[in-house]
Fold each of these.
Amino acid sequence: MENSVLIDQYGRQISYLRLSVTDRCNLRCYYCMPEEGMNFVPGKELLTFGEMHDLSALFCSLGISKIRITGGEPFVRNGIMTFLEGLSGLSGLQEITITTNGTLPGRYIARLKDAGIRKLNISIDSLDPQRFLQITRRDSFRDVYACIFRLLREGFEVKLNCVVAAGKNTQDIIPFVELTKEHALVVRFLEEMPFNGSSNFDQFNWTHEDIYSFISGRYPELTRLQAEPNSTSVNYRVPGYKGSFGIIPSFSRTFCGSCNRIRLSATGELRTCLYGPPAVNLRDVLRSGASESEIRKVITDAVAGRLRDGFEAERQNAKQIKDSMSMLGG
Ligand code: SAM
Ligand code: SF4
């Protein structure tokens, strides 16, 4: 990343963009959205795919080498595959990954491969169809479960994201670890965060320490794995198992010191920290007719002003009602 010009005031280089392509979704996970009455933004407030492409090109010229496509559910937006195919040709972009709920990507396996996309994160919080229904308020377990194994058979690298919460799915933790016995996938257990579109959040939920002690109580022989640079998860393997698992302190925020990511929401809000307010709305900057060099300056200034960590950023965020992750771009 020698050429990166996206460097914050603490010397952290930004090379990873999480791009939310829509706020809409075909599931209603309790930790992300209310069951009813989710206010989706009018279509004209969303960045068009053309605008997203142009902004992505600009980000890549500033040193972004990895883009994760997220949402909302990325595959519910019409035209997503054509957009991804265009993105895959961007100069400087080394990797496109996608976070999806796994209900729809099965339709696009061949096109995903052709676009060079090899890594998908699938969100699944229970291996029990009934609990899955309670968590997502939709009866899609079989589609998601089938999609995971189809992707593995087709040679994709698959990570499963599982938000752990007391009273919801702690009984699924060991079955998820057991899934790594025969399958070369990675399960990541996440702490629940307060981004559910309301002001209700019980922060006394399962912490990363709780998750670790629960699993290590069952598997005392766990091996800790070498972390990838800038990784947010602490990773382990049960000796002899084909896959591995990780624990992400998404609420405890122990990883901010090496964070290399920024987020662009579907409405153009650029966030340099998930917990902070948007630094700028790039849709508005773009639609005001700003030149490329003006937009570059807006982006580099926003990144330069990034705060030390998610706690400092949260203190700057006056909002009582927290946005949904589907708006922020999870
Ligand atoms: N719809 C896609 C999906 O579910 O994978 C992509 C968007 S979703 C917002 C991205 C990730 O954020 C998912 O893994 C989801 O579990 C996680 N997420 C959403 N709300 C969360 C919350 N309040 N706390 C922790 N993780 C959350
Ligand atoms: Fe939809 Fe993903 Fe949010 Fe669940 S976590 S409601 S699948 S955007």
Amino acid sequence: MDKTQNDMTPHDAAEALRWLSEMGADEIIGEAPVNRLAAPAPKAATAVVGTATVPAAAPVVVAPGASATQYQSLAEIEAALDGFDACPLKKTATKLCYADGNPSARVMLIGEAPGRDEDIQGKPFVGRSGQLLDRMLAAVGLARTAQDRESAVFITNVIFWRPPGNRTPTEAETQMCLPFLLRTIELQKPDVIVCLGATPAHRLTGKADGILKLRGTWVTANVSGRNIPLLPTLHPAYLLRQPAQKRLAWRDMLSLRQMLDVR
Ligand code: URA
């Protein structure tokens, strides 16, 4: 394991092991041996390792109808959202739920919309699916609480207020939030984006296929002229309902690990 994984706390390590065992991993085995003590390989011009391959296809240009370029920091975006009364979801939500994690992280995770626990705490992915997400991340040496950008993640959602009763947000609500999300990507400058579930995957890849088809395949999203490798994966809430699908999510986590290791 590399330095960042050696730095895991016993709690992180126990959580990571729990996730591995939940996924059915009962042996330490991979398709190829990985020596994580070896010096890092020279960075490849094109990221190709195992399944972590960004296809040469033209990047998907993600452009909102409106822009939020007037905001110069993530704190300014959060303040602007706090005072943004145009989105009807704000009226029924308890709290704004903008982001969590480390803004200097290499990895940005994008979910769908806050649920009940997130609405109460004002932070994304703090309920049961967030706990599962934390275990998945820990298994590949990542954590929202990490201080170093290599092992940190930054987490946000397509929608920043809880839809009443967790209903699907309308197109208008989604369009209202999108400029803030895209400005967040511009300012946070992630090396890679992981979309949790169909809603962010559809918005950022421009594809309408089901998440089971989209997941696991890297695409390139072009956000304001910057090409960013993007991996759609399964939403942790779906994994809680369909635990057998955790093996697919595990493949995606390994693919994310590989992509980070070569970039
Ligand atoms: N599901 C999401 O998509 N986002 C959250 O923040 C919580 C649950």
